[in-house]
Specification:
Layout lengths: L5 H27 L25 E4 L4 E3 L7 E7 L4 H17 L4 E8 L2 H10 L5 E5 L1 H9 L9 E5 L5 E6 L4 H16 L4 H13 L7
Amino acid sequence: MLKPPRASRWAIVLVIAAMAGVAAFLASREMLAPPAPPPPSAGPARPAAIPERRPDIRLADRNGRLRSLSEWNGQNLVVNFWATWCAPCRREIPMLNALARDHRGRGLEVIGVAVDFREDVLKYLQATPVDYTVLIGEQDGVDAARAFGMETIGLPFTAFIDGSGQIATIHVGELHRPEADLILAVMHEMETGAIDLATARARIRAAQTHPDRSGT
């Protein structure tokens, strides 16, 4: 077998050493880099069991003020859990803005709960108009999601809560305006006393499973 000339052998050694140095540098950068936010859940998460009543979670808003859902007692709530790194969450924001505007002063509040790093959320809110209250939490945001029955947290998900604190449903996945309007129509029947919580939940499940048979 022919051996490469001495100069060529030294060139190969230098290339290998350089590649090893680059690899070590990249590895050290990975080790020193801050942890990335968790990726979205690969499959559709589902609440283990939807609580009957709204948990009274407490999180800081965008100004750092600690807020509690009890501040909105007596109002219907649409509580949307999201994150800046979640594409379906970002797509929902214009619809939620419109929902908040359309129902402003009519007994409905939209609340966003960002399960994300605070600095990332604040930066995102500087560039993206969000016309409703946003609460922010990292581990306490995860704890808030679990308080709503989400053992496996997939984002986005949205809780619909009536003025008495009953959770009509938790919609998992990207929410669209027809779905929101349908759920709010069923909640209105709850408010008037025409149906109870169990009937409302059954109606919503039926409408989500068979939209053409919803009857709403």
